[in-house]
Amino acid sequence: MQGLLILSVLLGAVLGKEDFVGHQVLRISVADEAQVQMVKELEDLEHLQLDFWRGPAQPGSPIDVRVPFPSIQAVKVFLEARGIRYAVMIEDVQSLLDEEQEQMFASQSWARSTNTFNYATYHTLEEIYDFMDMLAAEHPQLVSKLQIGRSYEGRPIYVLKFSTGGNNRPAIWIDTGIHSREWVTQASGVWFAKKITQDYGQDPAFTAILDNMDIFLEIVTNPDGFAFTHSKNRMWRKTRSLTSGSTCIGVDPNRNWDAGFGKAGSSSNPCSDTYRGKFANSEVEVKSIVDFVKDHRNIKAFISIHSYSQLLLYPFGYKTESPADKDELDQVAKSAVEALTSLYGTKFKYGSIITTIYQASGGTIDWTYNQGIKYSFTFELRDTGRYGFLLPASQIIPTAQETWLALLTIMEHTLNHPY
Amino acid sequence: MQLRRQPLPAPRPGDPDPAAPLLVLLLLLALQGAAAAPAGPGEPEDSGWRQDAEFPRGLLSQAARAALHFFNFRASSPSALRVLAEVQEGRAWINQKKEYKVDLVFTTELYNPEEGKEHLGKCSARVFFRNEKPRPAINITCTRLIEKKTRQEEDYRLYKYMKQLKNLLDVVSIPDSHGHIDPSLRPIWDLAFLGSSYVMWEKTTQFLHYYMAQLSSVKQWKTNEDAIDFDYTVLLHEFSTQEMIPCHIHLVWYPGKPLKVKYHCQELQTPEEASGTEEGSAVAPTELSNF
From the candidates A283, A285, A380, A402, which is the catalytic residue? Predict the structure, then answer.
């Protein structure tokens, strides 16, 4: 109910510059059809300027009406004279609005620096893009923001580059949010970005990594989908591209890569949440990364982050045949999971995609592995189904912290095993 | 969404055709009874089962999930809901019809764990998967996680709390986008999960499994009679297809009594059926109930 209040009244306040001082919201209980008619008569009295939130319908259904201050006496007298019961739900609409506005601004992070940014809450696309700019401005020697493309709906696609110099050093790639509803991943990406700037020069092991390698971090890999999860459908997974010949929208960006494209493990139905697209790399969000990887030529580890299920996976998803480096990848995964679990005891399983989660064709790390990026991994972060995609914000930081330990393990191994 | 009323004394096979010949109906009822009954002499031992040493990796987890949904539904206790902890061991048999019989042992946790306390229960179950047909037949026994008296008291306490809840029709999206559930509404979530357990049991196959992603709306909340009458919609997340499936569920609950559930889930629209609305609205009736 409060949400509805905010929406309708604030909109009025913002657009029409109305104020609601002294306005009350009454809940009227009509006992019979005759009383329903009487309230309808009240509705017709335009000079009272009544705003019915829940109109008169039938006996038993409550009627909610906002009454401007000048009309309150008249309305109450009208109801009392006819024996119609009512209760005052909101004593003063304006004070409630003022309170809610305060709350909204308090929780909305108009942070002025990455030190006042709230990492323990979920953010909008705009807030995350602001964060990136702030971080790059605060650490100009370390952080730069690259645009690798534009989404289907025209949003810029950004990658943060963390580098201490050199010329096209061997690099680690991390992406989060390729599936837009997996909110803990984008939130973790933001946390990783900050963590990198905090630990470089402080933590010896990490400093060694960044002194020799670059890190590329794409926090919002599917910006159109992410915007859609905020505006219309929290459970949206795919891109927002239109498919000719169908009214269904979107392609699963993790079935659109050129690795086993079209094989079992993806759908040809545009309405499906695992729709592969008309051809590999049809999605600009995918193609942008493909082009970047091919142009860079020196990426040595590629980590794509999803939720939920608590898994650490390596190729393949489209076929049962093991990758040539299976033993090594399995060892790295084992160590990474051990590091992760050491922090809060969160249990992770690990293995190849096809044996651990399900058959999936056209997946990101199958392509990157086939490109020669040996250390290709996919994470599925918390939880295991209790909250699923709707992971409580209180778990963002613990999730990011434990995942970071696994990432460090992979990055260290990559540093110590050049190829 | 209209729910057709089909008051029936026992679960029926999926065929809704009311014109089925009586003989076939009796035969089907007999078979259904045998499959749903606890394991005993009525078991299809003779259906050509041969042990499958190389059963698909996920089969044991699938079986555990199906068994737990059934267990939760049958217990009808919102304060004693369980989730899967770990599969410990299992064996599988397959027959010529590619149906699976799975014996397994697994551990469980409380759905609502108490702070700091770890309650680990143990279950053994036998699950029959009928080659992607719904309603796996389950036989399951679990060690007790909570004292019966405690459970009954807790259920009754929840019942009394829920009886005095009003204005639930305004409830939209639990948890909210940020994963938050207002503590005062937590019991509603648990009750919704209990009803969803029935649905998820029926729909789980050897390939498909579900999680309750969100309680999307409350259509009706009646407590004026003895039982709690709860009509609501949920989003079920099917994992292997990654689809979000809206389901309309209607349950009636009274502590200590078996839960009654009716439901209707939307099915994914095919490319040909896609029409007008972008989110899809083709509905294939999958009506089953135990009212």
Answer: A380
